[in-house]
Amino acid sequence: MQEISEERFIDIPEEVIDIYSLWRPTPLIRAQRLEKLLGTPARIYYKYEGTSPAGSHKPNTAIPQAWYNASEGIKKVVTETGAGQWGCSLAFACSLFGLDCEVWQVRTSYDQKPYRKLMMQTWGAKVHPSPSSLTDAGRRILQEDPSTPGSLGIAISEAVEVAATHADTKYCLGSVLNHVLLHQTVIGEECLKQLGKLDETPDIIIGCTGGGSNFAGLTFPFIREKLKNRLNPIIKAVESAACPSLTKGIYAYDFGDTAGMTPLMKMHTLGHDFIPDPIHAGGLRYHGMAPLVSHIYELGLIEAVAIPQTECFEAALQFARTEGVIPAPEPAHAIAATIREALHCKETGEAKVILMALCGHGHFDLASYEKFLEGSMKDLSYTDETREKVKVSLAKIPQIAS
Ligand SMILES: *Cc1c(COP(=O)(O)O)cnc(C)c1O
């Protein structure tokens, strides 16, 4: 019901608030040491979601999703995970409510991040690499390409198939859908109050976008203020140059998963069977963008930019060596864009206030840092070959008049 609700506000259940209080409110921190390193007159603030038990913003929606399922008598939930953050968050949430949890983890992530798998298992979840031979969707992909790196779209197909064929099992999604974005707005609502106390108004707000949930979580409450003419920030979504659904995709009805089992969503998409290159920011390897984020992009309420991964890791090192936090590869994209803006302020001499979503830490992404530090990380940007792959995928999306 929340997915199609027209209510302006929806109360957070008491039990959910109680669990949020384990790590919320999350800190809003001024990056003074980074400002100094860059020599910028800009004031940079980051809202840090890495203090949650799973290390990202994802528990903000995992907790209410598990709570609503448990309170309706559901015994088991299934899901997919890309970077491992969502699987961990749902596993953590299920452990609090006695729900069984089964997770399909994208193959590259399963191989690169054994500790994410172990965290999920520690919280009591069952974890499978995706594609797996446990589902029709997985078996079909494996038959075509046994060495596929997998993708979020494929993993979603597998989890949805299991939910659709078992009466006692429900599927949970960690991003993209309206109710997920709604749950994440706790980030922006808190941040509005925190900035108010500091008497600061943001000129630019920046967040990374995979499916769009941490970005929407921080920015949507600010967009409400913008629409009421109370604030006027520029809002910028940062995507991976290897999977640029907003900047290179088309706006059309498409499936949320690779096998075409989900309802159609009107969104920016690279085509549901597009398999992005295995960049290190697993959370940004999704072919589509949240319908709500796509919609406001079409309305011109936000801007978007795509950044290649080496610039992001460069930025992440600058951030870690000044602010201390080692960021996840996904928010490293937001940091790279923030640094671009801060350096622009240095040129123009403008003391702008930049607010950035630092949606998670990178403690379990250190293998990616190793690649970068030893100099073997490639950019995997949007090449001619990718363009061709996208063209082929887009030719296969459903033809529906929008
Ligand atoms: C899942 C995840 C993302 C991408 O998902 P969004 O819905 O776009 O937020 C980005 N960063 C981190 C740390 C994540 O866990």
From TrEMBL:
InterPro entries: Trp_synth_b-like, Trp_synth_beta, Trp_synth_beta/beta-like, TrpB-like_PALP, TrpB-like_PALP_sf
Pathway membership, UniProt: Amino-acid biosynthesis; L-tryptophan biosynthesis; L-tryptophan from chorismate: step 5/5
SUPFAM superfamilies: Tryptophan synthase beta subunit-like PLP-dependent enzymes
Subunit comment: Tetramer of two alpha and two beta chains.
Domain Tryptophan synthase beta chain-like PALP span(s) in chain numbering: 22-360
Organism lineage string: Eukaryota, Viridiplantae, Streptophyta, Embryophyta, Tracheophyta
EC number: 4.2.1.20
Protein name per its UniProtKB record: tryptophan synthase
One MF annotation (Gene Ontology) recorded for this entry: pyridoxal phosphate binding
KW Zinc (keyword) present: no
Keywords per UniProt: Amino-acid biosynthesis, Aromatic amino acid biosynthesis, Lyase, Pyridoxal phosphate, Tryptophan biosynthesis
Listed PANTHER family: TRYPTOPHAN SYNTHASE, TRYPTOPHAN SYNTHASE-RELATED
Protein's job: The beta subunit is responsible for the synthesis of L-tryptophan from indole and L-serine.
Similarity-based family: Belongs to the TrpB family.
Native organism: Colocasia esculenta
Catalytic activity: (1S,2R)-1-C-(indol-3-yl)glycerol 3-phosphate + L-serine = D-glyceraldehyde 3-phosphate + L-tryptophan + H2O
GO cellular component: cytoplasm
Major enzyme class: lyase
Reported cofactor(s): pyridoxal 5'-phosphate
